[in-house]
Amino acid sequence: MNWVSNFGDIAVLLPASLGLIAFLAWFHSRQDAAAYAAAAAACLTAALFAKLALAACGGRHSLFGVESPSGHAAFAATFYGCLAALFGAGRTIGWRLALYGGAAALILLIGASRVALGAHNAREVGAGVLIGAMSIALFNVLRVKSERLELTSRTFVRMSPFAALYAVCLLLLADHWTIEPFIDSIAAQVGANMHLCR
């Protein structure tokens, strides 16, 4: 299950997101690039603040059974959900359903892997997916005019460096670096300095 979880790793999706933003800005639509940048930033910010708030007292508090929303689920939902929206724009209902269904299946598999690995419970994965869903909604609102991303040989050639970056990060960086200890350290300092944990 670890390899499935790696598809939602921040060490994979953050460079992939930067690559996607660069691709969209240079070869497709600056509006879509800006919309995805805003959605990714909103996702990361919301997940970070939720983790900080709930970890401020060392995990002694939870909200509806959530001690730490799944960052893997949140970022995966944002990245793969926005990709599906990008590729689905202007296509037939069959194509859109296939793309959205594929993205949803991958997101659910990543969430299930986090539960199977004992990293999160189902409610924490659900909270992460909710953060991702709100980020996808923001992406769609900011796009205003959804431009169709043509699937031509030229598009695939232009995307190949960014796909290679994704593959390298997936193979070399996934599961080797985590931001969780840093978040826990900051949360503990915030809890202590603001006297939140009496």
Brief overview:
With 198 residues, the chain is mainly alpha-helical. It has eight helices and no strands. It has one domain.
Describe the structure.
- The chain has helices spanning 2-5, 10-28, 30-55, 71-88, 93-116, 122-143, 153-172, 180-193.
- The chain has one domain.
- The chain is built from eight helices and no strands.
- Helix content is 74%, strand content 0%.
- The protein has 198 residues and is mainly α.
How would a textbook summarize the main sheet?
none
- Tell me the helix content: over 70%
Give the N-to-C terminal Cα separation.
Answer: 39 Å
- The ordered H/E elements are HHHHHHHH
Strand content: under 5%
Cα-atom Rg, whole angstroms?
18 Å
Average predicted local confidence, pLDDT: 83
Structural class: mainly alpha
Shape: globular
Tally of structural domains? 1
Residue windows where pLDDT falls under 50 for at least 5 positions: none
Number of helices: 8
Q: Quick one: how many beta strands?
A: 0
Secondary-structure map:
Layout: H1 2-5, H2 10-28, H3 30-55, H4 71-88, H5 93-116, H6 122-143, H7 153-172, H8 180-193
Helix pairs in contact: 2-3, 2-7, 3-4, 3-6, 3-8, 4-5, 4-6, 5-6
